[in-house]
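[09:14] KT: can someone run the structure on this one? pasting the chain below
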Amino acid sequence: MTGDIKSVGTLIRDRRSELGITQKEVADFVGVSEAAVSRWESGEINNMRRDRIAALSKILRLSPLDIMGISDNDLSFSPTLDSPFKEKNIRIPILGRVAAGTPIGAVEEVIGWEEISKKLAAGGACFALRVCGHSMEPRILEGDTVIVRQQPNVDSGDIAVVLIGNEEATLKRVKKQKDGIILIANNSAVYEPHFYSNREIKNSPVRILGKVVEIRCKP
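[09:31] RB: done, structure tokens below
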């Protein structure tokens, strides 16, 4: 376990309260006692087992990195599609669905609308996509909506919407290498990383449509 364990305990407590989940519900889901959850929320979380980190992150809709006290870039996370924590007054389209799993046909149909804050909109043009598939669990679940900032490039480690062959769109973490890129699923036990060489990137082509800047949980 790395990072400030006291602040991680506060994160666990505040996130549980935010989602309206009781300590007993967390305990039952993770397979521990209520007292253990209480200790975690007090900052006593040294040497937490990996399976418990995974289960805790799933019920709290957090990244395992959050539980471990490791920053996950600047990705924003909203507990519901209508999060009360942000002023939202810029409308953006929801453009169909994007696959968190095997790539699916590129989506352009507008199926609804989302609202984002002026601050987020000031960073560049954005659109929203509905997620299908399970490759990005537990961070991003099927039915969640991701807010994507349109940009042709991302930093290594960012989660991006990637267009493959001008026909298929997928949601993956991008790892850059000198000879190409690797598209990595969070659920790597089920979905293997996929490498694209620089030649494939040029010829297919493989093109980044934008960076995921916010995740909104399905209601």
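[09:33] KT: thanks! Residues 1-5, 79-87 have pLDDT under 50 and may be disordered.
[09:34] RB: yep, looked fine to me
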